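Entry 0007
Protein: TRAP transporter small permease protein
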Amino acid sequence: MTKFWYIIDNIESYICRTLLAVFVCLLFLQVIVRTLFDFSFSWVEELSIYMFVWFVFFGASYAAKKGAHNRVTFQFKFLPNGAIKYIEAFADLFWVFFNVYFVYLSIDFIFNKMNRFQSSQTMGFHLSWVYIVLPIAFTLMTFRVLQVNYKKIVLGEDLRDPDAIDLEEIRAETTTPKQEKK
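Output (structure tokens):
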């Protein structure tokens, strides 16, 4: 895979890292300036909020890429392992339909229904630049959901939730040779 495609495949991660670093630095600067100089930049808090909103939406897309979204999975304990990925894929179809509809609604809002004079209070730019994250992130999230299901069903990859804990694996790693002999 070329470097370009590697970057594109991990674009959410890069965007989230950049946004997080920048808005944390901006807020740190704001705290220092307020504390030491009894002064504040009015635009820092507003820009940090917008950056945080973008961070959340791109983070949701990144979670979709990793298969780490919250799901109710208790009922899968009673089903054969082979059926679970198909049931999850069927449920993900509803997620994809919701995302596509939300992309349509957000584009309609931004370009047709939004007040043309609505601008950022301290920075002065049009708020459509903030809201444009909605169709971008939900389109990317839709692509990631489809990508994960393709990897699971067609390629047969085992994409585990990164937050899932395998207790047997942890026990095997923490067991010392003396404990195994007993």
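Curator remark: The chain has one domain: 3-160. The radius of gyration is 22 Å.
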